[in-house]
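[job 4471] stage=fold_predict status=RUNNING
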Amino acid sequence: FPEDWLREQALFERLVRGQGSALLEKRYLRRDGGISHTLIALTLLRDADGQPEGFLSLVTDINKRKEVEEQLRQSEERARRQLAEIQTYYDTAPIGLCVLDRDLRFLRVNDRLAVIDGLSVAAHLGRTFREVLPTLADIVEPLLQRVLATGEPLLNREISGETPAQPGVTRVWRGNFPPLRDDAGQVSGINIMVEEITALKQAE
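[job 4471] inference complete, writing C-alpha cells
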C-alpha cells in the first residue's frame, strides 16, 4: 500500500533525526489478494560513534484485532441505524409516548404526548408526573406505582381528566404501562403509551 510505505519512510526520517523509536500500523497485500494488518515497532540503531547504523523492526500480526474492530464497527453501525429507526418512530407515532424513571420523572417524551398535555417536550423532561400533570396525578400515580412494585404491565386502562392543553375539559385516554427493565432484569422505569379516545367515548 503506497500510502503506508510513505508513512513508514517518514518515520525512518524522523528516527534518523533523533527520535529513538516509533510505532506504525502497516498493511501488506498478500498473494491471494487479501490484506495483512501489522503493527511495526521501529527502533534506530547507532554505531559506536553514535551515527545511525540501521533499524530494528519488530512486526506483529494484528489481523485478529482488526477483525474484532471491524465487527465492533459494524455492530455499532447497526445499533446507530436501529436507534435512528426507533427515534423516527418515536417522533412520528400518532400516539403519546414517554419514559419515566423509578421516581416517575420524565426521561423521554414524544411530540404527540406534548400536544396531548399542552406542554413542550422540554417542560416535561426531568420533572415528575405530578409536577407536570397535577390534575391527573391522583389517578395515574397509583397505576404507575403498581407497575414498579409488581413488574407487571397494565394494558388498555381508560383514564379521564384534565390537562393544561384544555383546562376545565374532561378528556379520555387509553393507556398502556409496560415496565422498563435494565440489563439485570430489574424494573428501572415505565414506558407509557397514550391514545386519546375522547371523541370515541362521546360518539358512544
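[job 4471] summary: The chain is about 40% helix and 35% strand.
[job 4471] exit 0
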